[in-house]
């Protein structure tokens, strides 16, 4: 088993960041480390214990470059529509641009997907994604514990059909998240700034 970082549960939960500029593009990531983290992630809950998720791990350089190109194209359109209001937004935008530039060069890409049987429901889709996204976040936590970083991304979904065709994903399965995975340059991540709890907490009513 891979040696784990000395993080207690609260430290793990509060220091698992979206890692972009600190992804180590030069250090190989053994497939067994990712599968070990996925074994942990599979303990996450799914609706009715259905376990209809699927995990596509990409390590082939040519395939990663193609997926990265779709991501970069989607990011270019997305960023062109955004207005950067402050320094924090500009820092995040710079980091996101960097990730778009290097997505295809990250040692591994992991796509989390789920079996739907066909089209997504027209109404509230929480029941669908609630059976995938907890597992994807558990994967991010398990990777962090092993000294690896990731960043939660969905922009490639603009080209979901093209990516599905490239990877042979059947039309009965929908993608929900793309995680670039690499060892991190250092492991000293800290909690991020967040709104005060009082601004988002509602007890008994809004």
UniProtKB/TrEMBL annotation:
PANTHER family in alphabetical order = NAD(P)H NITROREDUCTASE YDGI-RELATED (PTHR43673), NADH DEHYDROGENASE_NAD(P)H NITROREDUCTASE XCC3605-RELATED (PTHR43673:SF10)
Residues forming the Nitroreductase domain are 15-181
Which molecular-function annotation in GO is an example for this chain? oxidoreductase activity
Starting at the broadest rank, the lineage of the source organism is: Bacteria, Bacillati, Actinomycetota, Actinomycetes, Mycobacteriales
Q: Keyword Methyltransferase: yes or no?
A: no
What is the designated name of this protein? Answer: Putative nitroreductase
- What protein family does this chain belong to? Belongs to the nitroreductase family.
Keywords assigned? Oxidoreductase
